[in-house]
Batch of 4 targets.
Target 1
Amino acid sequence: MQIMQLQLLLPTGISSFQKGVLFFRNISKISAMSQYHTLKIENPKEFVYSVQLNRPDKANAMNKTMWLEIGKCFNELNENTDCRVIVLSANGKYFTSGIDLFDIMNLGQEVANHDDIARKSKVLRCFIKTYQDCLTALEKCDKPVLTAIHNGCIGGGVDLVSAADIRYCTEDAWFQLKETEIGMAADVGTLQRMPKIIGSMSTFNELAFTARKFHSSEAKNIGFVTQVYDTKESMLENVMNIATDIASKSPVGVQMTKRSIIYSRDHTVQEGLDHIGDWNQILLQSEDFIKASMAVATKDKKPTFSKL
């Protein structure tokens, strides 16, 4: 099945020999990665990796295995020189129904094994910190992460996509910060990231306090998603084209741009200027700057950049 899918992803209009070379190259790349039980990893285009939530029979509920695999996958892709852009999507009816409540029940049993409040609290703190780090892996990954969201994106799913760089969704997509509805405060990133994404504390506070659903049109209006597509198929096609465009750019330029954006978000303007100044005194000496500048000057639309 995996082999058939890889064959279908090969570009058209090339010779059988070229298809064979690309096919075996893609096979070797995927085989070199760790094996995942709740994620599906593909390499559909050069330098573009597809990561798909893959528990469709469980509405992609985020169990412990999925949380840990998300962190591991994005850490691994961060070090993968064949990867320049990542597209995050999901298989099945829903993008994700959020955290798997069976895991919460198991956590409760683990906490109950201790009598002392300090010991109970340490178990919970370790649990929270681990899950925080798993999602922060998207943000710490130097490669841009584009998310393609369809249907329901609930609770932990909003935390997940808030850690990405760009969000797209289908017309039938809807979102919900569900935590207050189940008697808790969100603790893995939404409260920290989403207000800075949409730029309105008033709107965000309403969504967080009421736990009401907000649909694709509202998500677009408040700036949470960049574009809304009619179907999942059209969304994935367009997002993959955007990812391919980004992947064609200098990896030095793109990855440093992401670092600077995130650093500047959490620091003063002057600190952000100092940060990029310190980096660019080195990176402006990179071969990428020379190649890209020459390509613009000579109107060469496809400069080739070394792996990074």
Target 2
Amino acid sequence: MSSEYAEIGGFDVRLSTQSRFDNNIIKKKHVICNRGGKQKKKSCDTLGTSGVRRKRNSNSTVIGCQANIIFESVYGTPDYKVFHFDELHNHPLEKRSDLKKARQMSYSEKKFIVRDSTSKIGPTMAHKLRSSLRDNVLDCMFWADEIEKTYYAEFGDVISFDATFRTNKYRMVFVPFTGIDHHKKSVTVGAGFLRNESIETYSWLLKAFRKTHGKEPTLVLTDQDAAIKQAIENVFPNSKHRLCMWHIMKKLKNKISDDLFTNTDFRKRFSKLVWGINMKPGVFEVKWGLLMKEFNLEDTRWFKDMFTKRDSWIPGYFNDIAMCGLMKTTSRSESMNSFFNTYSESGNLLLNFMMNYDTVIQKQRNTQ
């Protein structure tokens, strides 16, 4: 009862003294504020050379607070009654989250910190993550271990990320950042969690990415999400932003008539035109105009919009960037999402997901 009252009031308590009857049954219990009592004076010989290590002074918070409560045994019963109560403190009360009880960790939380401190993110970051998760204030998070930082330094010119994978009971969006190594294998160069998919959260994520890796990528490949586009412009002003070819081509069916979509000649020529890696921009523009005119698509809004954005998705406009030909779609990011999804469940706590993350990454690296 006294500990619950203290927790609500904003202070910690401890058992001070007890008196007993002759039969060893407790007669009175003195429960005092954790800052009650007198601080013990301890001398320290600064010139001593004994080498004996002094113990830390654990009474540093003791300031003589008189708040206390005394419980007295009700004779003949196992119950106690309040004998004396002094509720006045000589110090400011604390927030509930700062009390000693709130700082205590469960076994699973201790296990989480021990595992992470010996593997990837270190004890300090592990504890900050654990605290954020327990207080339910986690909105965004980004992390990258030393190997992922090395991968980015070596293969970070072209990266892609896809934010469609929700992997936990809180429905947070998991965002892995993917690059390509010299063997044309996908490598993870960082990952994050987002509470929502707004410009603000994406901007925070990209700022954390830039702060961690120390530089912007040369090219970033994403889908046509407007929030992502604006965040990249805000945070990566020197990077080129390329749209996913696969997502664009997937919309083709809904933008033209059924007769035209089933026209094998049109689809073959259109695909050859937009997927042509070695086609110069000038040649592309001429052929696009001829194709639109031949099939009466010159006034179709979607084709006009995509032509206006041609420097954001047509391969010929990115030939000056190394490795860009290997990453024309976000399929590598989507493949990584699928890979992580194999080891996750939608009902997982974030702590569970983080503890599985290392296993997934190790498996990915072992296949390279």
Target 3
Amino acid sequence: MMLRNMTVFWLHGEELMFGGNAVHPVQQRIPQMKMMKVHIPFTFKLHETSNSSYSDLRCTISSQVPYTLQAFWGVSIRELHHFLWKAWSSFQTAVKDDSLLRGHYQHCGLTLHETSHTEKTIQMFMPEGKLDLGTPPRHCYPLVIFLIRDTPENSTLHPDETVALVNVVHIRDNVCTLPTNILAQYLKQANGQLSSLKQLYLATGNALSYQDDACSDDASQRAVVLDNGGGSLNTSQEQLCVVCQYYPLSRALLPCRHTCICASCFGKLETCPMCRSPIKSYFCVRNEDYLADCALGLEKTGASAKRQAFSQWIQNSITEFLGLH
């Protein structure tokens, strides 16, 4: 027996085409970014006060290792980024010789040599004189604060060990009236790797800072799950997926950085459910051990749906062949 009208389909580039003029796009598999876990021994926070200014800037710092703090005012943006990509040995030499960013800042600020400690509030102020930051877009950062790990001579660190946290701070002024805030934070590892720390945005709208998890924006396109000994998302009060409201959220979407969905719902989406931007990649912010239960449920419902679809296809084909429609 041969059917009169056979449905023929084939793949053409990125599209799945069926006999006739209908074209149905094939959903592309969204790639997962590679993960690595990095321990951060430092924390750095600005005090959220309306009085933060060049004459009174307060921050809170903690460290699990001995370190050197060096602050610089009016730092050349170009020269800072050039220096950040240098080897870890260059950082060590610059701190030892007191030549860190020499010639590329307008005022040298606070310098401290500290042992490990819990959170401590530090007050900073710019020495006498004004900064020439240039007209927007500016060519200098108002303030850059280095937290550099102190290591004994001839000591060996693991290549993935964190050796420096570099904090770029914007300070509100008459030209740029944005509130005082941390513009950027850079993580330096002993192997020379440089990562730009970014916030993740939870479904509640709250920001998840690097103290819990963060992603890197480096050339190798790796996601870095950063750990400073604090809590994780896997708690008794963990948030649920905004789509199904059943499984815990476990995936951070890129490039928008919204952390709002579970692995089960992820495969059904092409855009972020929070901001509707296209999903280009993702990484996991917690384990997904719940997937076993999810797969079992999908297997049961999927098998039933396939049987129904096949039965309906047979019925429609026979009806069309006999001309009964």
Target 4
Amino acid sequence: MAIKPCLVLLLPLAALLLLAGSSLAAAQLEVGYYSKSCPNAEAIVRDEMEKIISAAPSLAGPLLRLHFHDCFVRGCDASVLLNSTGSIMAERDAKPNNSLRGFGSVDRVKTKLEAACPNTVSCADVLAIMARDAVVLAKGPSWPVPLGRRDGTVSSATEAADNLPPAFGDIPLLTKIFASNGLDLKDLVVLSGAHTLGTAHCPSYAGRLYNFSGAYSSDPTLDSEYADRLRTRCKSADDTAMLSEMDPGSYKTFDTSYYRHVAKRRGLFQSDAALLTDATTMEYVQRIATGKFDNVFFKDFSESMVKMGNVGVLTGAEGEIRKKCYIVN
């Protein structure tokens, strides 16, 4: 499948230099990074994750989402986990992150790692491993996670609001955001497949159901029967309590049914619907939606997750290894 090659050429020089630095840092990550300093690190994470997901299978999506939301702001440095302090509002309190869950699970895993290997495993690496394990435990693919990230010391709600891909994003906007992180159009359509896991609050999609535009009361790109069904759950744009499954009927299982919903114009977000407005992303959606290429999607998702996990990482003497993920040392 032809992927548009010119995206990175449109980036400003400063962004290109940032990406070059990110690639250099990513090259310092390695599979088995803790083989000597904390050889059981990944086993400890997996053991806790098995307990967490067994008790609450619906947490697989939120724990995967934490890694996504971390990497798109300042790179994969666990800045999304830091608490706000004084007058400084942190990423986790930004409006796009109001529905994030799983912070307690991260703290639980980090506590186990600190007991076994004090001051060794970064919170950024914990997020990357937990995201992989969340997918595996939801019956999705596994992949080797390159490790060696360090934790950032800065977290900004403003940066989160400015840099996270929005649920209302169209292809030009989403492409720009992904390209600024060294991710291309294929990564966009593949990583959108993470919406096979989890739920969303009404305000994130209500704009498609009510007062969509002057010409339409609801989004015409949304299947009308599906829209009617959503309105029975989401009574108004102000309903913050009601949740809808992002992949109806399969939101706890990592599979390709998300693409079948999107192909039928039943993607929950405008960003999902946008995948049908570009020839390249539409082709991928329709191919995976056939159900004949699950292994292709699993392989693509694994590769794109490794690529995303390399965005803007701190390594070597940069940053720190936080003792507690919600506060700097």
